[in-house]
Amino acid sequence: MQFDAIPDLDDKRFAARRLVGFIHQESFRRPFLPIAADIGIDEKTVRNVFEDHAEHLRQTIKFETPSRLGIDKLKIIGEYRCTITNIEKRAIFDLLPTPRQHDLTP
Fold this sequence. Notes:
- With 106 residues, this protein is an alpha+beta fold.
- It contains 4 helices and 3 strands.
- It has a 3-stranded antiparallel β-sheet, with no helix packed on it.
- Strand 2 and strand 3 form a beta hairpin.
- Helix 1 crosses helix 3 and helix 2 packs across helix 3.
- The longest helix has 18 residues.
- The chain is elongated.
């Protein structure tokens, strides 16, 4: 017996693509166990969905270290922060909690 494909069903997980997308977003913000409890699924499933998504990102996103970095301090909400910018692309590369040497060195 042949069944018709369900268009909004994730092929690997047999779950709605919207649910898998929700897990992708939440797994970068929250621990796996609370996500699983909110949805009503096993924590291992959340972990596996996250690992699949992380692997996809590793294969598709290319991180480039800028050839020219700009380093400056900026006062945000009353505290000085260290901003590292990509000068060529005029974009923020990183934002550190303080402009101190011990935060910048790593």
